[in-house]
Design goal:
alpha/beta; Dihydrodipicolinate Reductase, domain 2; 2 domains; five-stranded mixed sheet; 11 strands; about 35% helix
Length: about 280
């Protein structure tokens, strides 16, 4: 076996035995990951060892979490990236991605949860070109929606004609107004949905990337006082036929604006990093 192959095999074995994760964002999803990985050991050897927080002022909650889950807190990105982390998981917000993703991908593989940032075509191209040049990967977990493999397969030869996402959420998560009946708060292209509802339209961007793009993908967002779940209905048609998919996702117990399935999809994606048999791509 050539020496480079031995080195690669050793690195792959080391990664399977242990994966040090750097985390950005300690909200409901970040805390969920800490509990599942560091306390419950859901994925053996996978641990959050470092957290980046750009705020230099004292943060009692962050200090408490670091003691409970056993990770180091870094307030400088360079120090964070120079630590022992193998991969960075971002679960903060779009602005954090815009500010730091370019620098992160130069040194580490990156999981992006706030995929709405990729509605910016310049950022998208920058990350793609930098990742290729630096032999890094940008991972986009499917989050709270399915059907992405179908969209990618249908679009590979250009035969995907139309894609539409209808999102229905509890009214209080979308508007401060006391409404009594369902209200359409947005109806337009995915490109505009993420601008209007940056915390609620991530799904539309991952769908757009998988299919016909942010300009052609249609999005309707409905505030409904009669529902207590996040409901997504994906529709598509083209040369392949027709796709209709409906998901009723329970909100995260800690943050009703976040789907519980989103948090679980991150664990699933992390688990598949070194799987010998891959399902989909």
């Amino acid at each position: 076996m050539p020496n480079t192959d031995r080195i690669r095999t050793a690195k792959n074995k080391e990664r399977r035995d242990r994966l040090n994760i750097g985390l950005i964002g300690v909200g409901s999803i970040g805390t969920f990951l800490m509990e599942k990985l560091n306390s419950e050991n859901i994925l053996s050897g996978y641990k959050i060892t470092a957290v980046f927080d750009e705020r230099n002022k004292p943060n009692e909650r962050l200090e408490m979490l670091s003691q409970k889950y056993g990770f180091c807190v870094h307030h400088e990105l360079d120090d964070f990236l120079a630590s022992d982390v193998d991969i960075v998981v971002e679960c903060a917000n779009v602005e954090v991605v815009k500010k730091y993703a370019r620098q992160i991908i130069k040194q580490k593989d990156l999981f992006l949860i706030s995929v709405g940032a990729l509605a910016d075509p310049v950022l998208y191209e920058d990350l793609q070109s930098t990742a290729k040049r630096k032999h890094r990967k940008v991972y986009l977990p499917s989050g709270a929606i399915g059907g992405l493999d179908v969209l990618r397969a249908a679009h590979v030869l250009g035969g995907l004609e139309a894609v539409k996402l209808v999102t229905r959420k509890p009214a209080e998560t979308l508007t401060a107004d006391a409404i009594k009946e369902e209200t359409i708060v947005f109806d337009g292209p995915a490109k505009e949905a993420i601008k209007a509802y940056p915390k609620n339209a991530n799904i539309s961007i991952i769908i757009s990337i998988s299919g016909i793009g942010i300009d052609k993908t249609r999005v309707k967002i409905i505030a409904d006082p009669k529902v207590d779940k996040n409901i997504h209905q994906l529709e598509a048609h083209g040369d392949f036929g027709k796709l209709e998919l409906k998901l009723e996702n329970n909100p995260s117990p800690d943050n009703p604006k976040t789907s519980y399935l989103t948090a679980m999809s991150i664990l699933s994606s992390l688990k598949s990093l070194d799987s010998a048999i891959m399902i989909g791509s």
